[in-house]
Amino acid sequence: MSSQPPFNVTFTTDCQSQLAHLADLAISSGWGHRFAIVLRKMLTELENRPREWGDPITSLFWMQAVVYNRVLLQDGISIYYAVHDELAEVWVRAVEILPHEPD
Q1: Please, what is the end-to-end C-alpha distance for the chain in angstroms?
Q2: Concatenated DSSP letters for 83-100?
Q3: Measuring CA to CA, how many Å separate 5 from each of 24, 43, 54, 55, 83?
Q4: Per residue in 21-39, pLDDT tens?
Q5: Looking at domain 8-97, which CATH architecture does it have?
Q6: Where does the pLDDT of residue 2 fall: very low under 50, low under 70, confident under 90, or very high at 90 and above?
Q7: Among 12, 78, 79, 100, which is most exposed with the fewest C-beta within 10 angstroms?
Q8: Local structure of residue 6 (DSSP, 8 states)
Q9: Sign, CA torsion 61/44/75/11
Q10: Which helix (H) or strand (E) holds 70?
């Protein structure tokens, strides 16, 4: 693992659509500012320390990458992303809302 920060972070097309939908939901429910803060923190972590920030799930040998998951319980979000073994590349596959039980 020879790559050093900053990492280039790319969002898949599906993930870009997910984020746009989540942003619309956050804005319409009054959480737009908080959502922007969470996204900025996520991007900062992915650019600077993606291997330490998430929990490794599986190796993608054919892609020379490892898939990670980071759950932000306080924000109700789960992030799935892959980090290349040698290059400073991160691909974000999904940002999902965690299910919650009604109060």
Answers
A1: 45
A2: EESSSSEEEEEEEEEPP-
A3: 31, 12, 16, 18, 12
A4: 999 999 999 989 999 999 9
A5: 2-Layer Sandwich (3.30)
A6: low
A7: 100
A8: S
A9: negative
A10: strand 65-72
